[in-house]
């Protein structure tokens, strides 16, 4: 019984509207998802450790369930993620004795993983986050320390895109990262992607995770990041949007219920953000939230376990919040 306009209809000429889902939320949020969203991403179920816990064991059950949900509801599906330093099993990097594997073996293993996974969902997944979060947050180093970097060297990035492209030449391949609008990291992401393009690596887009909050990043920084990435000639997608009620370094503030002033601030913030995103509708092809409604968000466990947060457009009962009404009014006016 939804009476409000559907997000996917209001923004149909702008970008896809997506949500991260998992096997629980496709049940508890099914009606909300089906009414408002036309794209989904698996929150955890397509990560390496979920799909490929042991060398000879793949576990596709949960991922297949999400793919079936997308198909049933005529939604697009993004794949997340093939290469990451997190949620990746140890066996991948180890030989039988527990020592590090050679570069050749690691590349052969990752090629086989990518062929299997991307190949399986060829008809269903139109875009993949091929490489996730490899840029170092601080300092001068371009790349974050990881087993990928230790064993293969910086080439693991280009190789992953090549393997994914071979497995599904039609899929759109993305580099995806967070703090993507902060100047230091923005410039490093730009540098990495530019060098991949110069090497002829098949990469088609930059994913801006967009884990933002009421105060940061500034609209100017968001705009500059969008323009800089777009200048590479690639398409952009917001892949994990949420607007936390707390500043990033505010690790303790705890609120039992959400104050009306914060809901208004959040409405201001979403309104300004969506107005900005719509200016760039020619380069931004999708806006995915990292969840759908405030009854379930990873932010309830981060950075403080159990601290409630309210980052989305819909409340815990799946009713539209002030932020929802604000972006709809503003989009239908212009
Ligand atoms: O699988 C275990 C389960 O067996 C156990 O009972 C339960 C108890 O806490 O934990 C489960 O694992 C959790 C897993 O999510 C599945 O729910 C992990 O503890 C938890 O750390 C993990 O968090 C995920 C996080 O990635 C891991 O880094 C979040 O759900 C997921 O939203 C988050 O998503 C990432 C994106 O992939 C990349 N960008 C950042 C984003 C937010 O961190």
From TrEMBL:
<keyword id="KW-0858">Xylan degradation</keyword>
<keyword id="KW-0119">Carbohydrate metabolism</keyword>
<dbReference type="InterPro" id="IPR017853">
    <property type="entry name" value="GH"/>
</dbReference>
<dbReference type="InterPro" id="IPR001000">
    <property type="entry name" value="GH10_dom"/>
</dbReference>
<dbReference type="Pfam" id="PF00331">
    <property type="entry name" value="Glyco_hydro_10"/>
</dbReference>
<comment type="similarity">
    <text>Belongs to the glycosyl hydrolase 10 (cellulase F) family.</text>
</comment>
<dbReference type="InterPro" id="IPR044846">
    <property type="entry name" value="GH10"/>
</dbReference>
<comment type="pathway">
    <text>Glycan degradation; xylan degradation.</text>
</comment>
<feature type="domain" description="GH10">
    <location>
        <begin position="1"/>
        <end position="330"/>
    </location>
</feature>
<keyword id="KW-0624">Polysaccharide degradation</keyword>
<protein>
    <recommendedName>
        <fullName>Beta-xylanase</fullName>
        <ecNumber>3.2.1.8</ecNumber>
    </recommendedName>
</protein>
<keyword id="KW-0326">Glycosidase</keyword>
<keyword id="KW-0378">Hydrolase</keyword>
